[in-house]
Amino acid sequence: MTQPCRSRALVDRHFAGRITPDDERALRGHLAGCAACRERYDRYLVLAELDRRIPSAQDRLARGLGLAQPRPVRPRAVAFAFGLAAACAIAVVALRAPAPDPAEMRARGGPIASAEPELHVYRIPAGGAPRPVLDGAIHAGDELAFGYRNRGGWKRLMIYAVDPAGRVYWFHPGWVDPAATPVAIPIDPADERRELPEAIAQPLPAGPIWLHALFVDEPLDVRAVEAGRRPERRTELVVPLTVVQD
Known about the structure:
Layout: H1 8-16, H2 21-31, H3 35-50, H4 57-64, H5 75-87, H6 102-107, E1 118-124, E2 131-132, E3 137-139, E4 143-149, E5 156-162, E6 168-172, E7 185-186, E8 193-201, E9 207-216, H7 222-226, E10 235-244
Parallel strand pairs: 3-10
Antiparallel strand pairs: 1-2, 1-4, 4-8, 5-6, 5-7, 5-9, 9-10
Helix pairs in contact: 1-3, 3-5
């Protein structure tokens, strides 16, 4: 008899609102290589649309960042509802990143990409909990956190911002050491919504910026992106934001 993966308990704790930030990071790394835990995670995502006692994606992100204590789910309620979730099909309305501006994309030397995946942006004010960015406005000093839907099964993701002067601010991958050359981060191939557990602050200038989410298959590096190079196969979302000075 096949023994269940030990990490399935991390999936349960994630959706019960009891996971620690360290375990959240371990779970994210584990999901990419464990089909059984990914299946359990995906069933929970369906269940979360049926049972509002399960913490929302926003609350789960906050918990993974160590910022909030969502109300835990009663284990018996979850176990009972799993059978219902497996039998139901649910239509979920999601925010989709605006399509890239054609002039801006041509200026960067690439074709206009199809916006099949989705990017979800959360701002985290000092001492506060994550808030979805619904109106395109963030505040200087906010940390930003992200979620995504990987429609298309892309293997990697890069997230960065560009200001009107052409300066680039990296979120994923992080680029702290000037001597290093980090590459696009691995992401889960499933098309259900995933949250990246790290929140990152950048010294963004007040005014307009453009947030890029670049979905690729190869380990594209940050220097290549800043030099304007792109693989032929890619999807790039460009989300215009306004940074408000507090």
